[in-house]
Amino acid sequence: MVIAESDISILIPTYRYRDKVVRAVDSALASGAGEIIVLDDHGRDGTIERLAAYSDPRLIVRENDRNLGLWENHLAALHMARRPWIKFIQADDYLLPGGLAAFAAAVDEGVSIVFGCPLYKNEADGRMWEFYHTTRPHRLTSRHVQEACFYFGWLLGSPSQILLRRAAIMGDPAIWRSTMSADFVIGAITAAHGDTVILPPGTLVCESHGKQDSATETALLWLERTANSTAYLKARPEQGLRRLANGWVRMEAERAVRKLGRGILRREAPVADLIAAFAAIFKTMTPADLVQIWRDRRLLRAAMTFRRTRFVPFDLDRLIPELLERRSSP
After folding, report:
1. What is the pLDDT of residue 205?
2. Helix (H) / strand (E) containing 133
3. Which segments does the entry list as coiled coil (predicted)?
């Protein structure tokens, strides 16, 4: 069952990206999306006035009456969507011609999420690069997606890079908040409800610049997000998510130590707050969790070696078959 582009809601949350959001909107309107929703998070920068010139009936432009925050604004846009599939486009990213059609063509009844390997573009000099390289689509089960995350980190990227089945997306406000890695949590839960299809580069461009959340994230915020996200996933009933969270904590332990040290040395936050956030990452570990990590020790050791010895762009045409063939613990 291939879906039509008209079955997709494109959601463009934005905050003070007046000039960039026009490019995102133009790319969305060039597609066959059923609706395009732009939600301005009370940026007051002329975005609403700039978009008033558009007349396409599919385009809905709204502004929050107060600033909600990054992930909270994503959730507010999600509540407005009326189509069965959701495609976020963050305001500094944009679809390439035919990109949405490629996402739609990858869907069948067993798929819950489609990931388009992005092309990245440096805002300052226009340089383009790939993080993942593949020449053909790949299909992974939820278990293989979870295990791939031990190797690559969060495999499925940012909201701009994925198409999600609406019925599988959690609308819990506890996820969509600034102290949560909402892209990781939402993606992991959605991927647990079906298969994931990975598409080659060519569906979208993601711009890289210094104002992005990933560039401004403090050590304290990283520690809080890691603690909150893994704790949330541990409490979910979907198969494999507790195992994913446990393995994630193990794989990120060294980085957590570095973040703690950096935060203290740079005086980014009170030392007590940094230590508390660091401790929160590990405090939910139970004896059963430690047993699971021990059972996965070979997998996690191989993933650690991979992270230290492999470099981008990752060749998924070679690496995914290796992952699918790898024997892992039950």
Report:
1. 98
2. strand 132-133
3. none
Beta bridge partners of 36: 10, 59
Q: Rg of the Cα trace of the chain?
A: 20
Size of the chain, expressed as the number of residues it contains: 330
Strand order in the sheet with 138-140: 59-63, 35-40, 8-14, 85-88, 162-165, 111-116, 195-199, 138-140
The closest alpha carbon to 25, from 40, 38, 39, 8, belongs to: 38
User: Given the DSSP bridges, would you call strands 132-133 and 138-140 parallel, antiparallel or unpaired?
Assistant: unpaired
Give the per-residue pLDDT at 194.
98
Q: Residue 14 forms beta bridges with which residues?
A: 40
* Strands of 93-95's sheet in order across: 93-95, 204-208, 119-122, 128-130
Q: Respond yes or no on whether the N-terminal peptide bond of residue 313 is cis (omega within 30° of 0).
A: yes
How far is it, in rounded angstroms, from Cα 311 to Cα 316?
Answer: 12
How far, in whole angstroms, is CA 269 from its chain's centroid?
A: 26
Residue that is written with structure tokens 């020790």 in the block: 297
Please list the ranges in the chain whose pLDDT falls under 70. 1, 327-330
Q: Residue 124's pLDDT is what?
A: 87
DSSP 12-57: EEESS-HHHHHHHHHHHHTTT-SEEEEEE-S--SSHHHHHTT---T
Maximum pairwise Cα distance, the chain: 60
Residue 211 pLDDT: 79
Report pLDDT for 330.
45
Q: Specify the pLDDT at position 1.
A: 66
Q: Is 4 exposed, middle or buried (0-12, 13-18, 19+ CB in 10 A)?
A: middle
